Amino acid sequence: MPKKIGFDSEKYLSQQKSAILERVGKFRNKLYLEFGGKLIYDYHAARVLPGFDPNIKMKLLSELSGSADIVLCIFAGDIERRKVRADFGITYDADVLKLIDDLKDWGIKVTAVVITRFSNQPAATIFKNKLERQGVKVYTHAFTSGYPHDVDMIVSPQGYGANSYIETHNKLVIVTGPGPGSGKLATCLSQLYHDFHKGIESGYAKFETFPIWNIPFKHPVNIAYESATADIKDFNMIDPFHLEAYGETAINYNRDVEVFPVLRHILERITGSTAMYKSPTDMGVNRAGFGIVDDEAVQDAARQEIISRYFRYGCEYIMGLVDKDTVDRAALLMEEVGVKPEDRRVVRVARQTAEKAQDEKGKGNEGIFCGAAIELKSGKIITGKNSPLLHAASSLILNAAKDLAEIPDRIHILSPNVIESISNFKKNILNVKTLSLDLEEALISLSISAAHNPSAQSAMEKLKELSGCEAHMTHIPTPGDAAGLRRLGVNLTSEPNLSTKSFLEGL
Predict the structure, then answer these.
(1) In this model, does residue 266 exceed pLDDT 90?
(2) I need a labelling partner for 326 at 20 to 30 A (CA). Which of 137, 308, 430, 483 fits?
(3) What is the pLDDT of residue 261?
């Protein structure tokens, strides 16, 4: 069914911008604003807050770009172990490069990149060299001596004082990075230390979207945040400092609450005065809760996101990326909001499709029967099965495009000559064992077929309507399937089953 809008992006943009400028005005010289979450393509927020513009932060930055510096942080350890951003399937260092390009496309120049907790790791050094040779200013910060408990050491020439000072030019400095643990907070505090030694009275604040501080503790949107961070063991809690200071309940999360006493102490040592913040919630600039216009809609969307996270962690467990505790935690959060995997409409249909495939001639491949289902924006569910010719994802997307274009089932939109040519190329040139076309290959085949087949052309033009649709597969998609679905904007979940008997392709 068409998704109900539950969030007003324009209202949020207006209020968030005003709140940031108000916070900037509280400091005489400069504000370091830590941007948590994803700066661009914030699909988690878009999924749990239907109506949320995934690029709203970029729009905000664009409006502030004339008066803001942008500093990107990345943890050297994440570069070294090639940590991957799950929604794009790219490493964190590649994400920084992509972010620099994306910001450039928005007319925003990155002031500097900071590699944090740097100790001459080989991969981090190569990354630094690569950026510098492209004209990007790069700073390296070592692990802060004494952190987190020895404040005397932290706030000293041997602590923050040992870090290079990042030259900035505007009153507002946006500090962001790919994922948690990138060193954003330490970078902000290091800058504060150097500023005060230079006679510059600067301040710190934090821009977060989740958890939303002014909606209930057990609200599905906030629980969806817990599910999204189950792999790093984050959890929501009532901010005890805010409750004590103001007698008001505000929601925050464990890491911010745990670090607040130390952070407040550090701020007071740096500035030489009582910290203006009485709670971690005070530090935040977050007007997301005021953008919710249909609470029922966002609750429903959040419950679906919690189910999706459960499936993602199940697959990541099979791939060796998370532990069993993460999967169990995701399952408990589903129970907490009263949903089960089958409450995602496409799940049951995909499973039934896989079962039916076992009784159909020409379906399945190498003894594996994969079923897939996608819910169109009309509410109609389309299915696909794997075969020796096509992956289940390929069959699914082609069937969906045909349905949207009102093309009868009997009409083939992929040229047999094109399929045969690609299969022969894979077999005879690339020496690939599996000849069936993954989604990326099928989409290329469709584009070639469209040159001389009007039906293929019509189907291809309908692909853009699949963006935002929900889909499920009974097996983990291969890289070509995952990339194709990602580029089409399809929200995919899958069962933790390998889609091939090949360990190389499956894992």
Answers:
(1) yes
(2) 483
(3) 93
Kindly state the average pLDDT of the residues 47-68.
88
Query: Where residue 60 sits, what CATH number does that domain have?
Result: 3.10.630.10
Question: What pLDDT digit, counting tens, does each position of 417-468 carry?
Answer: 888 888 888 888 888 877 889 999 999 999 999 988 999 999 999 999 999 9
pLDDT of residue 396: 98
Q: Are 79 and 127 spatial neighbours (Cβ–Cβ below 8 Å)? A: yes
d(CA 207, CA 33): 7
CA dist 437 → 315, 348, 470, 484 (Å): 22, 25, 22, 12
What is the model's pLDDT at position 87?
Answer: 65
- CA pair distance 190, 147, nearest whole angstrom: 12
For 420, other C-beta atoms within 10 Å of its C-beta total 12
Structural domain includes residue 459: yes
Two tokens at 297?
């809609």
Q: Is residue 54 part of a domain?
A: yes
Say if residue 85 is exposed, middle or buried (CB neighbours under 10 Å; 0-12, 13-18, 19+). Answer: middle
Which pLDDT value is given to residue 27? 87
User: What domain range is 108 assigned to?
Assistant: 9-208
Q: What is the pTM of this model?
A: 0.90
Q: Sheet harboring 491-494: ordered strands across? A: 381-385, 371-375, 470-473, 491-494
In this prediction, residue 91 carries a pLDDT of 87
329-385 pLDDT, tens digit per residue, is: 999 999 999 999 999 999 999 999 999 999 888 898 888 999 999 999 999 999 999
pLDDT confidence of residue 181: 84
Cα 469 from chain centre: 17
Structure tokens at 445: 């085949």
**290 falls within a domain:** no
Work out the average pLDDT over 160-185.
91
- Among residues 208, 239, 263, which one ends one of the domains? 208
Compute the 3-state secondary structure of the chain and give helix, strand, coil in percent, each to the nearest 5.
50, 15, 35
pLDDT at residue 112 tops 60: yes
Q: Distance between CA 411 and CA 461 in Å, rounded?
A: 17
Sign of CA dihedral 303, 306, 312, 314: negative
Concatenate the DSSP letters of all residues of 469-494 into one string. -EEEESSBPPHHHHHHHHHHT-EEEE
Q: Are residues 349 and 201 in the same domain?
A: no
CA distance 84 to 322: 13
Residue 428: which CATH number?
A: 3.40.140.40
Is 257 part of a structural domain of the chain? no
Rg (Cα) of the chain, in Å, rounded? 25
- Look at the chain and report how many structural domains it folds into: 2
In order, the DSSP letters of 106-167 are TT----EEEEES-S--HHHHHHHHHHHTTT--EEEEPPPTTTTT-HHHHTSTTTGGGSPPPP
Q: φ, ψ for residue 341 (rounded to 5)?
A: -55, -35
Domain end residue (candidates: 191, 208, 225): 208
